[in-house]
Amino acid sequence: MLIKDRHILRQNWESLRADIESIIKDNKLSSTSFKALSIHDDWKAIEENIYHTFCRLDHPTQRPVWLWENFKLDTFSIAVDQSFKLLDQLVDIDETVWFFINGDRDKLWFYEGNVKAIMTVIGESSYIDEIYVASKKYQWLICINHHDDLIATGQIMPDKLRGLQTTQNSR
User: Fold this and answer.
1) Is 165 exposed, middle or buried (0-12, 13-18, 19+ CB in 10 A)?
2) Cα 138 from Cα 120, distance rounded (Å)
């Protein structure tokens, strides 16, 4: 084992993060296609911007565990099996986006990457419960919740999902 890989095996690392690190390594995902935000990235500011942009906040410091229950902008959802497989039909494959998931104790873990790499991570992980993909310009947010509902909110994305549902229903 290489020294740099030891951090993912420490007891205080969540199994979810270790699982994702393994998926990155096994699929040889480059850091330009998918990476965890580092300690130098201001993930807390990103998290707060997402909450303030997309959610109704009823308390000055408490944040909802399931963002999708508190969306305040135009929102549309569909229920389909393996809804993550539709992400590349909604998000431009060349766009770098925020990807975040809920971990143990309701902590959000932040990554950035492209939709193809994100789909690989989702498809191969056995731990992910709530999945979020957001525009780095905070224009839209997509959620796949623990019911496998695909939910879009913000600008443009609810309409894109409505259009995608129409296409899916006409097949």
Assistant:
1) middle
2) 23
